[in-house]
Specification:
Layout: H1 9-17, H2 31-50, E1 57-62, E2 76-79, E3 84-91, E4 96-99, E5 102-105, E6 111-117, H3 127-145, H4 149-170, H5 188-193
Antiparallel strand pairs: 1-6, 2-5, 3-6, 4-5
Helix pairs in contact: 1-3, 2-3, 3-4
């Protein structure tokens, strides 16, 4: 799905971060519009992959895939969902391995996974993530549109600060102890520092 720049808060904010005039639409012939269209999906995916955000976290039960090339060591294949950006965990007591868009495993009969999904509808993104994506977009666009090295460095520092703030905001989206009884509970000191 293509984002309409005329209504995109993220794209407008990215140009604000760079202290540049907003572009009116991705359909513009300007180099700003063309570069924004190219960078937007990458900036969004980079931020979503960066952390296990609760807004992008999802669970799936994968069926066995017969079209996956066989590996004699891991004979059962599974295909990751098309919206999967990064695999976070596989619920299996057996051995498994990710190969590109596939998971090879010993376990037959289905596989449960937790992953970060690509969110293509801007309105589904929480405000903290929208701001972090705008900041990432500004960092990616800055070599072309920001002449000052100091300003480009400031944009990178601001991105880091915004990602940390977004993590702190999202850090209370799950219980502080592990699901698996064999795993120790989380360290409250480490959780407080997020």
């Amino acid at each position: 799905m293509t984002v309409d720049i005329a209504t995109s808060t993220i794209v407008a904010q990215a140009f604000d971060f760079m202290e540049k005039a907003e572009i009116s639409s991705f359909g513009d012939e300007s180099s700003e519009a063309a570069k924004a269209a190219q960078v937007y999906p990458r900036a969004r995916d980079m931020v979503l992959e960066h952390y296990d955000w609760s807004a992008a976290r999802t669970f799936a039960s994968l069926p066995e895939a017969t079209a996956v090339a066989q590996d004699p060591d891991l004979p059962v294949g599974y295909v990751l969902p098309t919206d999967c950006l990064i695999l976070r965990s596989v619920r299996s007591r057996d051995v498994w391995r990710q190969d590109g868009r596939f998971i090879r495993a010993m376990q037959a009969g289905g596989l449960d996974i937790l992953y970060t999904r690509r969110i293509e509808v801007e309105a589904e993104l929480p405000a903290f993530l929208q701001t972090a994506i705008a900041s990432q977009m500004a960092v990616l666009l800055s070599p072309k549109f920001v002449g000052s090295r100091t300003k480009r460095a400031d944009l990178r520092v601001e991105l880091n600060d915004l990602l940390m703030a977004a993590k702190r905001h999202d850090s209370h989206s799950a219980s502080g102890h592990a699901i698996d009884a064999a795993m120790p509970d989380g360290d409250w000191v480490c959780e407080a520092r997020l």
